[in-house]
Specification:
423 residues, mainly alpha, 21 helices, disordered C terminus
Length: 423
C-alpha cells in the first residue's frame, strides 16, 4: 500500500509546534494525525515507536509544555495515551528507566496551578502498567516513605497528593496478585480517589489534595454523600488521630473558632452517617493493601463477622467466662477459710461492667444456692452491683465497644487481676 505520510512531517512536527507554543491544539488536524499514525505504524512500527518515545517520556515526566493551558488542553494527552495503548504488550518497559518519584512531583507542580485532579496521571499509569511497566517498586516505596514522613516540613498539598497516589499504586504493585487483579485495584483506587485522599491526609497528618487549612475542614469535606458507605473507615482513622490533628488551642483563621470544637461537630455527623448508612465492603480488599496497619481494627468494627468467626469468638468468650466463674466460686470458699475477706469478694464483682457482674452474680446464685456463705453475702454483693450501675450511667458508644470492654475485663480477671489471688 502506498504510504503518503511521513513520520517527521505528519506526526512529530505538529506535536513539536504545539509544545513550542507556536500553535494551539485546535490548530492540529487530529483526524489526519491519527490516520497518519495508524498508517505509518503498519509499515514502520519501530520507527514510529522510536520517534514518539521521547514524547511519551515527557508526558510521564509532566513536562510543563504539556500544561501550557493548565488542564484544559486534553487532545495531545488523549492522542499519546491511545498511541501507547497500540504500542503492544511490552510497551511499558520503555518507561522503566524513568524516575517515577520525580515524575509525580512534577505532576503535583503542574496540577497545583489550577487545583486539578490527577486524572491523566491515573490513566497513563493504568495504561503502562498493563503493558509490563516494572520499575524497582521496593526502591520507589522507600523513596516515598521518606517523602511522606517529611510532608509536614515541606511541600504542598498537590505534590503530596501525588506522592500518596503513587504510594497506593506501589503498594498494589508490590503484592503477588495477578496482573488482572492489580489492574482492578488500581481502577478501584482511581474511582474512589476523592475519598482515599482523605484517608491519606489523616494517616500522614498532612492535608493532601485539598486546599484547606485544618483538619476540621478535611472532616467536613469527607462528610459528602459519596463517602457515606465508607464513613466507618474515615471515622476510625480520624478518631484515632484526633488529638494530633485537632490540638487544643488551634484556631480556624477564617472563622476564629476552635478547630477542635468544629471537628467534634463533624465527628457527630459522621456517627449519624454511620448509624443511618449500610457500610460498603467494596474498599476492604484495597484498604488491606493501602493501609495494612489499620485494616484489622477497622474491619473488626465495621463488617459483620463470618459464621466461623462468630462461633470462635463465642467459644473463646464462653471459655473465659467459665474460667472466671470458677475463680469466683472458689473465692467463696476462700472467704469461708478466711483467706480473703467478704469485701475482697465484693470488690472483685465491682471490677466488671455491671451487666457482666450481674451475669456472674446470677450464675453463682444458681450454682451456690445452698451454700451458707454465699447466702450470707450475696444480698450485699447484689446491692453494691446495683448501686454501681445506678452511679455509673455512662454512655457507651456502640455494641463493639461494649464487647471489647467485656472481653478486656474478662481477660483481666482471668489473668488474676481481681484484687485477690486465685490459683
Amino acid at each position: 500500500m502506498e504510504n503518503n505520510f511521513d513520520i517527521e512531517l505528519d506526526i512529530i512536527r505538529p506535536v513539536e509546534e504545539y509544545l513550542a507554543g507556536r500553535i494551539t491544539e485546535n490548530e492540529i488536524d487530529w483526524y489526519n494525525w491519527n490516520s497518519a499514525l495508524y498508517t505509518l505504524r503498519r509499515v514502520n512500527f519501530w520507527g514510529v515507536r522510536e520517534a514518539l518515545t521521547p514524547y511519551y517520556h515527557k508526558f510521564l515526566m509532566a513536562n510543563k509544555a504539556f500544561f501550557r493551558n493548565g488542564s484544559t488542553d486534553t487532545q495531545l494527552k488523549n492522542a499519546l495515551l491511545k498511541s501507547i495503548e497500540r504500542e503492544g504488550r511490552y510497551a511499558g518497559r520503555i518507561f522503566n528507566d524513568v524516575d517515577i518519584v520525580k515524575a509525580v512531583g512534577n505532576w503535583g507542580v503542574q496540577l497545583m496551578a489550577d487545583n486539578h485532579e490527577p486524572r491523566y496521571f491515573f490513566m497513563l499509569m493504568q495504561t503502562i502498567l498493563r503493558r509490563d511497566y516494572k520499575p524497582d517498586w521496593n526502591a520507589v516505596y522507600e523513596q516515598l516513605k521518606m517523602k511522606l514522613a517529611k510532608a509536614r516540613n515541606y511541600g504542598n498539598f498537590k505534590t503530596h497528593e501525588m506522592y500518596c497516589l503513587l504510594m497506593g499504586i506501589t503498594m498494589i504493585e508490590r503484592t503477588s496478585l495477578p496482573r488482572e487483579k492489580k489492574d482492578e485495584l488500581v481502577g478501584l483506587m482511581r474511582r474512589h480517589w476523592q475519598f482515599i485522599k482523605y484517608m491519606y491526609s489523616v494517616l500522614i497528618h498532612y492535608i493532601v489534595g485539598l486546599k484547606v487549612d485544618n483538619f476540621a475542614a478535611v472532616a467536613n469535606s469527607a462528610c459528602k454523600k459519596s463517602s457515606y458507605p465508607f464513613m466507618h473507615w474515615f471515622y476510625k482513622a480520624f478518631k484515632e488521630n484526633f488529638d494530633a490533628l485537632c490540638p487544643e488551642g488551634l484556631i480556624d483563621m477564617h472563622s476564629g473558632k476552635s478547630v477542635r470544637e468544629q471537628a467534634l461537630v463533624h465527628m457527630k455527623k459522621m456517627e449519624d452517617i454511620i448509624k443511618s448508612t449500610n457500610a460498603s465492603t467494596e474498599l476492604d480488599e484495597l484498604f488491606a493493601i493501602l493501609f495494612p496497619k489499620v485494616i484489622k481494627d477497622v474491619l473488626r468494627q465495621s463488617r459483620p463477622k463470618t459464621y466461623e468467626e462468630l462461633e470462635a469468638a463465642v467459644d473463646d468468650l464462653t471459655n473465659r467466662y467459665n474460667k472466671v466463674l470458677e475463680q469466683l466460686t472458689a473465692a467463696v470458699k476462700d472467704v469461708e477459710s478466711d483467706k480473703i475477706s467478704a469485701d475482697d469478694l465484693t470488690a472483685a464483682f465491682l471490677r466488671f461492667p455491671t451487666q457482666l457482674a450481674l451475669s456472674f452474680f446470677g450464675s453463682m446464685s444458681t450454682l451456690l444456692a445452698l451454700n451458707p456463705t454465699w447466702q450470707k453475702y450475696a444480698p450485699k454483693i447484689q446491692e453494691q452491683i446495683l448501686a454501681k450501675q445506678e452511679a455509673d450511667r455512662i454512655h457507651v458508644e456502640g455494641d463493639y465497644v461494649i464487647e471489647k470492654n467485656v472481653e478486656r475485663e474478662v481477660s483481666h480477671v482471668a489473668a488474676g487481676g481481681t484484687g485477690f489471688s486465685i490459683n
